[in-house]
Amino acid sequence: MTCSDQEDELLSTLPELPSVPSGLNRRGFLMRHAAIGAAAVMTGTTWTPEARAQQAATEAAAQQAKNEAMKDASGLKMSNTLSPDLDAVRKSKGPVMTVADEFYKVGPGPSSSHTIGPMRITYDFYQRCTKLPADQLAQATGLKVHLFGSLSATGKGHGTERASLAGLVGKEPATVDPRFLDEMIAKPDRTYPVRLGGKSFNLSLADVVYDAPKGEFPHPNTMTCKLMAGDKVLYEQEYYSVGGGFIEWKGYEPPKKGQPKYPYATMKELRQHAERNNLSIADVMMANEVAVSGKSEEQINAFLDKIAGAMLATVKTGLSYKDDVLPGPIKLHSKAATVWERAQDNKYESDRAIAMVAACALAASEENARGHLVITAPTGGSAGVMPAIVYALTESQRRVTPEKIREGLLAGLAVGYLCKHNATLAAAEGGCQAEIGVASGMAAAMIAQVMDSSPQVIENAAESALEHHLGMTCDPVAGYVQVPCIERCAFGAVKAWTAFMVATNEIASRHRVDLDTTIKTLADTARDMNPKYKETSEAGLAQNLTLC
Ligand code: SF4
């Protein structure tokens, strides 16, 4: 029996419930009223009904005020809504319009929203500045970046200032040499030359300012970029890193796209397209990719091959590090290689399948923690999950072909797109359920598609994997995407495989929860979640774990 059940039982035993004074929480008032009655019986005190109700109201009001004060102190009153002007919010209406190369992005870890997004933003700003009139550029003396909200609260642990500076000096996420970012850690006072028009000046990490962590922002990951002439702002743009490496800015208008061949905004609609046209989920996805992006099937396949290759590379590189210490104050030792080695040992043969999937997820996730290149699927924090599945499918005895891997990546996209469309991919909005939960759902869909499962089984597998991450909070210790993130990727990958196993061993039509309901629950839970648990590092493990 839960506490709530016990309270309901207690309340139901009251002979006659008093009316609840206006402005008071009903449960709080009735519980105080019942407790006063119980205490009176034990102590032999007598209350008139009016005096007992008055006392209960006084105690309930005091408790309510205390709760509100605690909420204020914890920042619960911090903005928990997104601006309706954001395209990410507007796009939640109409059919899914996201395409593969917007979703799977290659860039430096450890976080798509706090590293890749900010780097894309400052690179965009740098590009805009290069196009300003020569007379404006002639006055320029520097560039400044201000980080707000979650970017300010946990940016240090994510290397947001290094990513922001790298973009300002003209480095792109997909092509930056991770050693360039590593050097910024080793030499934090180093300056970097920037050339804009005829002017050139030096920038350093001091030009990236950790500004207000709390306030009313259009998005929890808000930043501003400024071109300066001394103290005067010559040109300024406000940006938002809206999750998964996606970026927007004030006044953002999405690029023009074609209309999807099979429009859908829910899994039910997507599955119906597949079933009515006798197509697989991957077939429907490919037809839409071609129609929306305007690219050919060959171009899309080439992109998917590149992504699969990059995922395999992150796992291989991650496995090549044995017991190194990951950057940051946690002094966490890597363990992917050890888990992998043990998986090969015949003594532990019965553990092998799970150990290999876990080792691959740890390997890619540890690469993310090193700040090396990863692939958002859907985010940097969750970037160990899908690569583990790609590796397990291709490099194990299964030897799945590249064609099947493409199909799996497309089915994974379907789940990722739907979560982005109808809920969120940003931990700053929805906690870890939006990262590892979505990644696990994508991975389950991928396995099921690769194994030629029906659209219903693919949906069921994805649903199960996502369902069992609902409510998971984001509390990276010391703001570093390491604890709990690295092991969480391993669990997300193993859960994906479990979800596939369950989905293929049940009668598909008997599965009682549909994916759309679970995605709606993800969105509802994200809205209700205490903001402390949304990538602020102010609660959970981040609060309780003591680092020595
Ligand atoms: S706890 Fe989860 S959501 Fe938060 S940073 Fe880690 S992986 Fe990402």
UniProtKB/TrEMBL annotation:
Cofactor(s) for this UniProt protein: [4Fe-4S] cluster
Enzyme Commission numbers on file: 4.3.1.17
Native source organism of the sequence: Microvirga terrestris
Name of the protein: L-serine ammonia-lyase
Functional pathway: Carbohydrate biosynthesis; gluconeogenesis
Gene Ontology molecular function, alphabetical: L-serine ammonia-lyase activity
Catalytic EC class: lyase
Keyword Iron in record: yes
Gene3D superfamilies: D-3-phosphoglycerate dehydrogenase, domain 3
InterPro entries: ASB_dom_sf (IPR029009), Fe-S_L-Ser (IPR051318), Fe-S_L-Ser_mono (IPR004644), Ser_deHydtase-like_asu (IPR005130), Ser_deHydtase_bsu (IPR005131), TAT_signal (IPR006311), TAT_signal_bac_arc (IPR019546)
Lineage, broadest ranks: Bacteria, Pseudomonadati, Pseudomonadota, Alphaproteobacteria, Hyphomicrobiales
Family: Belongs to the iron-sulfur dependent L-serine dehydratase family.
Residue span(s) of domain Serine dehydratase beta chain: 102-250
Keywords assigned by UniProt, alphabetized: 4Fe-4S, Gluconeogenesis, Iron, Iron-sulfur, Lyase, Metal-binding
Transmembrane segments: none
Annotated signal sequence range: none
Catalytic reaction(s) noted: L-serine = pyruvate + NH4(+)
The Serine dehydratase-like alpha subunit domain, residue ranges: 277-542
Domain of life: Bacteria
Lyase listed as a keyword: yes
